[in-house]
Amino acid sequence: MTRATPRLYCTALVIAATSACVGTPAPRVEPATPVTQSTIALPPPPLAGRTIAFPDFHESVLPNGVRLIVVEHGTQPVASVNLYVRSGSAADPAQQAGLAGMAAELLTKGTQTRSATQIAESIENVGGRISAGAAGDWISVSATSLAENLPLALELVSDVALRPTFPAEEVELARRRTLSGLQAALGQPGEIARRRFLREIYGEAHPYGTMPIPGTVQGLEQSHLQQFHSRHFTPGNALLVVAGQVTRAQVEQLARQHFGGWQGSAAPSVTMPVVPARQQTTIYLVHRPGSVQSNIWVGHGAVRPDDPDFFALQVLNRILGGGTDARLFQILREEKGWTYGSYSNFTRPADVGYFSATAEVRTEVTDSAVAEIVRQLRRLQQETVPTEEFEFARDYLAGSFPLRIETAGQVASQVAQARLLGLPVEDVTQYVQRIRAVTAADVQRVAQRHIRPEGAAIVIVGDATQILSGLEPMAPVRLYDVEGQPIERSALQVRASSLSFDATRLRPQTLTYQLIVQGNAMGTATEQLRRDGDAWVGTSGLNSPVMQQESEVRFDATDLSPIRSSMAAGQGASRVSVNLEITDGRVRGRAELPPEAGGVRDIDMEAVGGMLLPGMDPYVLALATLRDGASMSLPVFNPMSGTVTNVTYRVTGAEQVTVPAGTFPAWRVEVTGVQPMILFLRQEGPHILLRQEYPGMPVSMELQSIGGN
Amino acid sequence: MPTFDWRCFATITLVSVILTQPLHSQGGTRQAGEIPFERYELANGLRVILAPDPTSTAVAVNLWYDVGSRHERRGRSGFGHLFEHLMFQGSDNVERGQHMQMVERNGGSLNASITEDRTNFFQTLPPDRYNLALWLESDRMRSLQVTEENMRREIEVVKEERRLRIDNAPYGTSQLQAFYYAPYDSTTCFPYAHSVIGSMDDLNAAQVEDVRNFFNTYYAPNNATLTVVGSFDAAEAKQLIQQYFGSIPRGMQPEPVQCTEPFRHLPVRQTVDDPNAQLPAIWMSFAGVPAGHPDSYALSMLGSILGQGETSRLNERLVRTDRAALTVQALPAHRRDPGILLLFAVSNQGIEPARLEQLVDEEIAKIRDGGVTTDELEKAKNRYRSDAIFGRQSVMGRAEALQWHNHFLGDPGAIRTEMEHSMAVTSADIQRVAREYLQPEKRSVIITRPAAATPTPARIPEDGR
User: Fold this and answer.
1) pLDDT on residue A338
2) What 8-state DSSP symbol labels residue B129?
């Protein structure tokens, strides 16, 4: 289910060129007319003698240790202020991962003299903006305003950075926002892959390999935030960058006024552990049952920011996977049609960065795509890049640089970046010259030196039951579940269930639910159970502007064994319908899915003991034995993938739950193995579903009424 | 989930340029941000605006043709949009698709867009390569390949674009109704009573001869303004421009556009059944004034105070306080002939559009009766001026600003005067224009009702009612 907030499209008075944004070179459709004006028949060569000097900037240090960079640049009366503190999420203690991110977010949510609303209003009233955020190696607070409001911008940045109060209620709100965002992210295969990759590259001991999880965020208290602030927000750890139509004298005077009185002990120095060396290529396969795509990350630790090969690696990356005209995209997408996109990257954090080549491909081509990526890495080591291809990459990087230092803010951010990485300013002021000095031979040399297909981590998130056998011949494979726990190969087997349920305890009933989207009622759903001969028939209907769904499931009235299940759903323009029947111990039927989910699929496979068909889960839960800590795993047929996967229901607590139908003592049940859900079931049996939530999504269902039948 | 893409932003920013020109009063501290320029004309009528600036690191080459959907005749609608596509299909010395490739491979960026009043083509390049953009623009102005094959292929692309953006998009059909068909009388102002995206029937019927004539008439040097902004030498640019564009022959003088009394048919009230919409919505288009009209500045501020930003009056009332609407916004559409002020709101579930209409009317009445506060007006002016100035930090932003003021107000230098006019707006002005323009009998109201899905998308007349 996706968020359904309607938004106005691009207004009709604006019709932009699609042709300008897509399109591939194609042969000329008509012969050229004879050239008569020879001076204008050919594209002109570059104009000579046109080197762009990197704009001037001034660096100084306030007496208390705050470093200051001023960029007097730009034709428009604009000022941008950025305060960087050289401690980011890499400074989080492992048990408090997420601390820097939350501290940054809360800076603008209250100071000793201003509330969150007052901070927002004071900058909006003058048409400006303020924001704060954490990166891996630093936290930044940024304000942009008209030049005439520079004093206000500096005052606000100083106030939020030096005197934040981390108000308890804002901490709570931020925690909820963070948890909800985190839960949503942890359900995304791309994020699961990225996290596995970082952990394998950097190991547990390195801060770059440690990421926030719900457990570490839950534990964050106001006092931790205050401690983090007093420890890291010190003048010696700060870099203040002011750019725009400003004067150095004015900025220095204002900086002294607003930051000169800032006191604090020296910033804590962090020693980064060594990035572990990789001896052999290993495949880390994260089993995501039912996945129709595989997310692939291939790479390893690479270079420090000051490595002299950085510029040659930039050119290499542009050739390999730095855009849609690069090799990975052209081969994996244009030539093979395996993926929507494939790219590569060399990161440049303060400590050792990593190299990665990534792709998201259809399940059935997973092993071919991995092999092709590895082949392309080797090719860079074995062959010199052809001259034309090399020159395009080099010239693109050199040519586009001036467009990346157009505004004062962009200039400032380039200089700040160099300083935060501990680099000499020549790294940016000489960027174009250094890129132009790279040769095709350099590219081959750095490929041999810094790319290691023989010592790579290959992370794949996908349905291991379908891709494992293709991957095993390539390299040793280690298996994980989506939570990150190592699993055995035996765990890939679908486990039959021997649990029995007494379906005679069910009673006919009708339950009505409200669908809540972002706090607004957005539709109703009904669940009805009736008796039909030897079977129970459960029907459900959801009617909402967001989506419509109708389903019917039939199962044995004594032992709950499945008989038939059908479902039809629509969301926007996409339609899904599924019809399944169990005969002779087999599941047979057909699933009609949107093309991107596989299209029409005929189903005929062996049933698994204790297997459920879609739509049976409320009735199984109604009859299950629930108590704190209880857990059961049942094989459930997944019509989207056409496979059976184990779904786990785990009771994780008892709560009072209030829904429109009343207040009830309830069990909290976490569901994993499908789209993660949290269910609240009435403690009194049969266990009626009271509320259903999707972690990280602003969508829930709440029980409105209970009726007999 | 539909999101705005940057191509749309490019032109939406343009709209806000108009309403984003605030003030130069109170002691001269509030500068508009100067953009020194010179302008001249080639013998073939090409107008040129040069704004050299040695401190910038890039050069924008920006060409506006005085052709938009307003220039299309009945039975020929969609030609303007078709050309925005055809211009990338190759010319004598540039193969199809090469324009984009050459610019990008030299480190540059580019795009094009069309509105009711103009079509623009623009590229940003490093200073040693702006000559390439001049050459590319001149080659297609001189020798665009308007062939049957190119035309048919791009017509299909345009049709697909229409299906995607209008026919299958929530509120797509109502949006065309609210912008064009309902507020404008097609008998007196066909230019604005039909959509920019174009009529599929007209495009299907297009003959290559008609399309060539359209090119020869509107894509001629005497119908275009070339603006170059950034790090370049003016004398060299003049020489290059003369070399590349000087020999392109002048075209015919296009016929003047007729739009008289466009609003005499108001009020209008219509309902659109939209199978793609999930929730009801309401659109109110108030009859406005041409860009540059003395009341246009106060109307822009009024739009901002009513419906732009989280703390706008309509957002406070409809979304935050009464929770009747999911979203509400004001979209002033500035045009060469009279424009409109459009208010748009989507209902929360269970809320009838009539309720939204009542709430909007109440908020308008409050301003008509009580005016706006000094703080509100000040905030609107600050927002307007900041947005305008932030947008002009790039060479492309400055080129677009020069072009806009030249095209709509007849003088690139109007950047300064327009800001002064906007900053001079008073609370009394706002109250006066609210009384004069925001009247029930001077508007069209479109109600969008979600409809059960039907096999064919909702259709509305494509070239006016």
Assistant:
1) 87
2) S
In this structure, what token pair is assigned to residue B342? 């459009």
Closest residue of chain B to A523, computed from CA coordinates: B349
The pair of three-digit structure tokens given for residue B32, joined into one six-digit string:
């508009």
A34: which residues sit within 8 A by CB, 6+ positions away? none
Could you tell me whether strands A643-659 and A662-672 are parallel, antiparallel, or unpaired per DSSP bridges?
Answer: antiparallel
Q: DSSP secondary-structure letter at A459?
A: E
Q: Which of A373, A335, A402 is nearest to A51 (CA)?
A: A402
The C-alpha atoms of residue A700 and residue A514 are separated, in whole angstroms, by 8
Which residue positions in chain A have pLDDT lower than 70? 1-39, 546, 572-573, 595-598, 709
Which stretches does DSSP call E strand in B33-94?
Answer: 38-41, 47-52, 59-65
pTM: 0.80
Write down the ipTM of this complex. Answer: 0.81
Quote the CA–CA distance of A647 and A611 in Å, as a whole number: 10
- Backbone φ and ψ for B188, nearest 5 degrees, come out as -110, -20
- Can you give the pLDDT at residue A709? 56
- Please tell me which residue, A510 or B452, carries the higher pLDDT value: A510
CA gap B360, B269 in Å, rounded? 16
Q: Using the Cα atoms of residue B5, residue B390, residue B241 and residue B53 in order, give the sign of their dihedral.
A: negative
- A43·B102 Cβ contact <8 A: yes
Which one, of B434, B447, B439, lies nearest residue B305 by Cα?
A: B434
Q: Among candidates B303, B315, B301, which has minimal Cα distance to B342?
A: B303
Candidates A694, A618, A682, A679; CA nearest to A656 is A682
Strand order in the sheet with B47-52: A15-16, B109-114, B119-125, B59-65, B224-230, B47-52, B38-41
User: pLDDT averaged over chain B?
Assistant: 87
According to the model, what pLDDT value does residue B9 have? 24
Give residue A14's pLDDT: 28
Q: What is the pLDDT of residue A573?
A: 65
Tokens representing B424 are 């001079």
Nearest residue in B to A50, CA atom: B128
Whether residues B85 and A47 touch (CB distance < 8 A) is answered with: no
Which residues of B fall within a CB distance of 8 Å from A77? 31, 33, 389
